[in-house]
Amino acid sequence: MKKENVLYLFFLSIFVTGCSSDKQSYEDLPYIDVRKDYPEKEINLTDIADVTYLHLSTVNDDFLYRGSIACVTQNTIVVIDRSSHSVLFFSKDGTPKSRFNRKGQGPEEYVGVEFTMYDEEKDDVYILPSIFYMSRYINVYSSSGEYKRKLTLPQGALVDQMFFFDEQSILVYDNRKLLQNMRKNYSEDNTAFMESIDSSFFLISKTEGKVLEYIPLPSNNVNLSFRDDMVGFAIPGFARVRKCPDGLFLYNPETDTVFLFSKDKFLTPYMCKKPLLSDLNPMTVMDICMDAGRFQFMSVIPYLVNGKISPDANYYMRDKKTGEIFRQKIILPDYKGKDFYFDPRRTSYYEKAYHFELDLTELEEAYRENRLSGKLKKLVATLNEDEDNNVFMLVDFK
Questions:
Q1: In the 3-class helix/strand/coil scheme, how is 304-340 assigned residue by residue?
Q2: Cβ-count burial of 232 within 10 angstroms (0-12 exposed, 13-18 middle, 19+ buried)?
Q3: Selection from 152, 250, 151 nearest residue 200 by Cα
Q4: 181-196: per-residue pLDDT in tens?
Q5: Residue 284, exposed/middle/buried by CB under 10 A (0-12, 13-18, 19+)?
Q6: 329 with 40: CB under 8 angstroms?
Q7: pTM for the full model?
């Protein structure tokens, strides 16, 4: 199976019709200074987290997939098969449970699967298509594919990220206003540059999709879009929402600041990047952060290198107890010669967990070279790279 790119691009074609205002609170926030050369520090993964190896079994070809984990609940792992847009369900020990495919153009079907959430208690599967389909709906099914209901999004909404907030609501991120500003920035109307980028976060009802509450985030007049010869205009694909222990992180990279939207609906600055984008030339952008266990995980990306988005992000960790920041080098005793890093952009887990997908072809090679040990070695010895899914390493931070 193909590895995911370090940085994906979220393209918006032309043909498709900072920090807190309180300077003192800004100075007091945890931050990363992208001008500094932070040292690299080697961390043994088993010292900071409990590790479990998981193989999603293939009873038959129906559960052999090309895709990735979409979400994980207390008892279930949900996978999107990107080749067929099927949704697969496995137990936490890797046993297949169910699958369905409702791809189509009918009133109870989806045009594709971009983002999936699973409410295990109610057996509700929320399916969000790619924004390229311009869909106004989030469809809800059971884990066996039974159609339940449709959530109608606001007219013109371009939603590509959604997360459960509480029992009644879902928080979504809408790209609509960002697209509008991109059009203005590349038009001949110079007054367009007077308007700031205003990304939209709001809560919708789990039952019908009605907007319950808008969440205004500070925004700066920083334009991160760029011309692309193939697709017109594009922006880097930043994560705008992420789960955390106290609620949800919300983020506009244009402002250099991650905000915490708490479970009781208070919005406060949480972490920022220095210096501000407006003070950097060329710009270096921070993606959303991840808070897990003792550490905060961050990534920063050189914005444009020779007119192109840099393919490489730099990954850092911050020790919350000491304030120390260092470049990540995560090692695993069971897999010699393999380095890992935590990418805060991966948002499929609850707040204390993470996963790594281990390519089975690479694992087979490492097995032959005697670089595997322990439970991982025993598992790989039972698998066939031509007939089995990749191996996942589930991480539960201590």
A1: EECCEECCCCEEEEEECCCCCEEEEEEECCCECCCEE
A2: middle
A3: 250
A4: 666 666 555 444 444 4
A5: middle
A6: yes
A7: 0.85
